[in-house]
Amino acid sequence: MAGSTLASPTAEAAPAPAPAASGRDTWRRFRRHRLAVVSVGVLGFLVLAVLVGGWVWPVAIDEIDFAATLQGPSWAHPLGTDDLGQDLLARMIYGGRISLAVGFAAMVVATFVGVVVGALAGMSRRFLDPFLMWLTDLFLSLPQLPLLLLIIYLFRDQLKQLFGVEGGVFVMIVAVIGGLRWMPVARLVRAQFLSLREKEFVEAARSQGATAWHLVTRHILPNAIGPVIVAATIEVSSAIIAESTLSFLGLGFPPDIPTWGRLLYDAKDHLDVAPHWALFPGAAIFLTVLSINFIGDGLRDALDPRRVL
């Protein structure tokens, strides 16, 4: 009896390193996706460039030089200039901060709303689940671009008065894009909750008197977070494309705020004489979205517990 008593603490303490091992296994699976690893480097470079590029290339984004209009890449202007002689590298660095901030902020909004709606639907056993799924299907059936345009026209002026020109447009675009992209996350979270809430470990916790909040935060949501992270990466790329589309249509940020989509909009009338003006912001959007999608693929493979190490 004494031997078994002494051995029990050791037996209980042995599984303690499991989370670290799980993290190492996840990283090992992620590294096998070569495109995802390369995409992490590409996205990290783009984020670092827009964050610290202003100190490395301290050129004003509104500095006009009519003697250098529509010039191609050179030592003085590595990415060329626009029709006012403004430096495109400086404008892309500034605009990249806004484009990426919109993408990540809209992702946070969409993921938060989707997780809340999906969790409520997944834990409900009566009328709330059908109602929330009906609401989700209703939002999925709405045409997003016309709805985006309608909301922008209705609320743009009020938000500009509350938060200023740039802040109002940012809040509006993030809220609208995030508010119209939560449905796939909600469906995914609901499916995960419906599966996990019947598992043995959840039933054991429920039999011990665990509240619904405790079950969700401690047992179900942590086990469903993998697919949610993958879905969140997709939402970032979707939000960046949506912001670029609105800016290209002239309905996003004002003309003096050079987001990547706005740069494409301004370049559309000069494609024959200055293709570089559209090429560089287009390439930045393409690389950002492609990198995020590959990272999402890598995370999906790495967080899938059914995959063999």
Automatic annotation (TrEMBL):
GO terms for biological process: transmembrane transport. It comes from the Bacteria. Residues 96-296 form the ABC transmembrane type-1 domain. The keyword Cell membrane applies. Its main location: membrane. Residues 7-21 have a biased composition (Low complexity). One of its GO terms (cellular component) is plasma membrane. It is found in: Cell membrane. It is a multi-pass membrane protein. The chain crosses the membrane at residues 35-57, 98-120, 132-155, 161-180, 228-253, 273-296. Residues 1-22 are annotated as: Disordered. Pfam families: BPD_transp_1, OppC_N. Belongs to the binding-protein-dependent transport system permease family. This is ABC transporter permease. It comes from Methylobacterium terricola. The lineage of its organism: Bacteria, Pseudomonadati, Pseudomonadota, Alphaproteobacteria, Hyphomicrobiales.
